[in-house]
Fold these 2 entries.
Entry 1:
Amino acid sequence: MPESDLAARLEAALDGALGAKRARHSRAVAALAAELCEREGLDPERGRVAGLAHDLCRALPAAIQAELAAACPVPRAAELAANARFAHGPAAATVLASEYGCSDPDILEAVAFHTLPRPDSGVLTRILYLADKNEPGREFLDPAERERIVALPLAEAFRLSVEAVVDWIRSEGLPLAPETADLYDSVRVSVP
Ligand SMILES: [Fe+2]
Ligand SMILES: [Fe+2]
């Protein structure tokens, strides 16, 4: 199915699957991901689909999220099924593949790992992470800083976004998942 048809189907399903705030967030992520794809030479419709789909399972009961995540077709993504914070990504990738017929491995990877890209994750996964953390409705960055980050070259924007998330987690006194710490270390290794 062409990405534009997929985006239209996801768009139609969004309000039934999510509350108003999360549906608005998903649309904002889709718009920013499409814009970043365009800038990076990727088909913007792939970014739109990834953005619309990424939180599709967020409102499902935890046990269903875990069950869907455990069946995720993306390599290594099922490992996230046991973690309540991360399971909605692989769960959404499962639904996107099985119910929407999406077979684009980059879109499925981006959705599955949107909460926690791996150090070797692809460009679309980085774009979706960046869009998820920096869409205009997000509150943990001030708007000027967010716009500055998004305008930077992708690798630098991604690094700053990971750092901002980790700073926020620390400032809230929340525990840092080991996978997030690994990601943080990996993006900082490349700092000149
Ligand atoms: Fe999410
Ligand atoms: Fe999100």
Entry 2:
Amino acid sequence: METRSLDSMAAPIRAAHSIAVCGHVHPDGDSLGSILALTHALKRLGKQVTPLLPAVDCKLREYAFMPGFCDLVPAAEYQETPDLFFSVDVPNSKRFGADALAVYERCQNRLALDHHSDTDMEIAALTYSDPACAACGMIVWDLIEALGLPQEPEEAMCCYVAVVTDTGRFQYQNTDARALGYATDFVLSGAIPSLIANNIYLSRSMARVQLEAICTQRLSFECDGKLVYSWICPQDYEAVGACPEDGEELADCVRSLAGANVCMLLRVQDNGIVRGSLRAKDDSDVASVAHDFNGGGHKAAAGFNFEGSLQECLDAVLPRLRELVR
Ligand SMILES: [Mn+2]
């Protein structure tokens, strides 16, 4: 069944000349890794491939070392209509963001690979989703194999980035034998774990470290320390000279605390939106809370956008988290 559905993507791929590959807004390592691995593979098939960045303003410095990164085109600058629109790691069309959504809407010929538990199977004519895969990059790897293409070091590097980031450096609950088995394959095919770790995890700017210090000072505890949260606001970024993406990993600083089973980091934006990141270290399903606030994600790592003030957000979300912890 699995191989058959991936196999069925071969015909529409072979029929297309120009292909746009796109991931979700606020790109993470899995989204970027999946986009770039698939781009490399499709180029080897002789396709004219455009890897799309959903927004212009993301710098994503820690991912700039990835092979093919400099070929990413902001969706807003891409005016063409490709023969095929290929989405990866995107569970529903709301997750494209406005610029990429416009490309998605003008190209009706679509394929999708995903691994969220709530994938909208209507997002593409052919949608393949396997929530048992810790990262979408694992499915991209399978597709490359199903297409009979070589699994080159470029693809392996990108897929390794996908799996190491979506498993939180092989720490989240989704880290299983399958994920580690794929990671082994990626390394056997040329991925270099230390190089990837040096770039993604060990190249933090001073501003990022200082932002983490502010976040640590504000840690708040509830439910005997099982529920922990913190927050950060635009003035903090200004004070330490940080850019927006310097806050992307802050949820991990909350999560690292002993006994913190359910964690939340709130990032107040200057557009009246509070971005919430939720993490669980036990069996709690934080995606269920994210869903209540029109967000999504995975059981142990999810997010949402809340319209309102920090206090309004805390008042709305904390009661739901307390229910989870008890
Ligand atoms: Mn993912």
